Amino acid sequence: xxxxxxxxxxxxxxxxxxxxxxxxxxxxxxxxxxxxxxxxxxxxxxxxxxxxxxxxxxxxxxxxxxxxxxxxxxxxxxxxxxxxxxxxxxxxxxxxxxxxxxxxxxxxxxxxxxxxxxxxxxxxxxxxxxxxxxxxxxxxxxxxxxxxxxxxxxxxxxxxxxxxxxxxxxxxxxxxxxxxxxxxxxxxxxxxxxxxxxxxxxxxxxxxxxxxxxxxxxxxxxxxxxxxxxxxxxxxxxxxxxxxxxxxxxxxxxx
Length: 255
What we know:
Elements: H1 4-8, H2 10-24, H3 33-53, H4 61-76, H5 78-81, H6 89-92, H7 100-127, H8 139-163, H9 167-180, H10 193-199, H11 203-217, H12 223-247, H13 251-254
């Protein structure tokens, strides 16, 4: 069955996630808090630039920007899960277990960090004057769907990077372009319609817009965004799984 490997190896997954968390925050006085301080510092710089230099007129721009950045950071964690196979070559060569477990564990680690960031974000948004409605209950659903897309993309990237080592550097460039090709630091409606349509080709645009709707605007996202999210997520998971299965047999030889 589809979920059998994950359930059968749930203890291994949990231990890998715990190990990653301990490694990331080892010898750190602030621990998890660094996960939020990083996007907060970045947001403060961008708030100054876009509010005082470009003079964007966006209601509660700090909340608008933070919501977009933290949503994007979860997707950008694919740069970490991309290395989940190559960094565990010594384990892969010694014992057998479903290799996708390594990718799944890396994504679960990023998901745990993202959940903490969103928890702190919601508390901060209250201080920024944002009031929530019942639509906030949709946030876990959107994050769960985003996890599936991140996992699908990570499956493809982690498998391909074993064979094509330059992929890691290429993906970093893609992420940099993708960040500005989504309405994260600017409102999409400032663009001409033809460029805004191109913006919507970025799947993360739909996630950022939809999560802002349920958090900041107390509204149900547009049907087009929901359809786009469903289509992109299904496509990424199916293609990611197929690519991973295609390249997995050669991992031992290439690593």
